[in-house]
């Protein structure tokens, strides 16, 4: 295992409300501020970035899960109590720019990122989930973007991500209505990809990620890159696919898969 990876199963707790642990080939990052609804302030945003610095580069990593500790809250957005102390735009923008940069970084990670939503995801919490590649909601999940009720708009680039995820008309309904949606309703709207009838979103996310343990990391990275390009750069996808296919065809993982198929056993995918 890479030296910059958290030990499997053992939480590493930075001082600013973020827990990091490994589960097989997955990195689990949990916001751990239950006293504040797992909200995000500037220290928490920095701590999440530092956790990515420490662990996301591990060569045996295949996926990342973002969740909230405790099960009651996924994330309730910004820490409003701290934000009330701002008396001008400078302090507000310093915090919000840092959080916007963090969500942009999560969105651009080369590995798939899964939001495991157990409990409440409100305001910026939904914006955080929208920055992830997949969203899984547990049976007790509640999602809402109530900013219109508060006289503001989503501040972490969530409007753009929401429109890209659910479409213009549904985004208007969600943003103007400001209601909270349970897991099944959120799934019907397209806010989440999987709604769990039982168990937990974290458990379902771990099951999804464990299924990647024996997959080629190189293929996982290229699949995310190509899927992302279909939205961001559709005119370039075919050329990107041509290049990636030829490169991976002659790569070690494909050679091993061919050999294993000929010998009728499962391939031994490289772990690093």
Walk me through this protein's architecture.
- This protein is α/β, with parallel strands linked by helices.
- The protein folds into 2 domains: 18-210, Alpha-Beta Complex (2-enoyl-CoA Hydratase, Chain A, domain 1), CATH 3.90.226.10; 217-263, no CATH class.
- The protein contains 11 helices and 10 strands.
- The protein has helices at residues 42-55, 80-83, 89-108, 124-130, 158-166, 168-177, 183-189, 201-210, 217-232, 237-249, 252-263; strands spanning 18-23, 26-31, 63-68, 73-75, 113-117, 120-122, 134-137, 142-144, 180-182, 194-195.
- Strands 1-2-3-5-7-10 form a 6-stranded mixed sheet, sandwiched between helices. Strands 4-6-8-9 form a 4-stranded mixed sheet.
- Strand 1 and strand 2 (26-31) form a beta hairpin.
- Helix 1 runs parallel beside helix 3 (89-108), helix 4 (124-130) crosses helix 5 (158-166) and helix 9 (217-232) packs antiparallel against helix 10.
- The longest helix is centred in the middle third of the chain and has 20 residues, at 89-108.
- The radius of gyration is 19 Å and the shape is globular.
- The chain starts with 17 loop residues before the first strand and ends in a 9-residue tail after the last helix.
- It holds the Pfam family ECH_1.
- InterPro entries: ClpP/crotonase-like_dom_sf, Enoyl-CoA_hyd/isom_CS, Enoyl-CoA_hydra/iso.
Question: How are the elements arranged and paired?
Answer:
Elements: E1 18-23, E2 26-31, H1 42-55, E3 63-68, E4 73-75, H2 80-83, H3 89-108, E5 113-117, E6 120-122, H4 124-130, E7 134-137, E8 142-144, H5 158-166, H6 168-177, E9 180-182, H7 183-189, E10 194-195, H8 201-210, H9 217-232, H10 237-249, H11 252-263
Parallel strand pairs: 2-3, 3-5, 4-6, 5-7, 6-8, 7-10
Antiparallel strand pairs: 1-2, 8-9
Helix pairs in contact: 1-3, 4-5, 5-6, 9-10
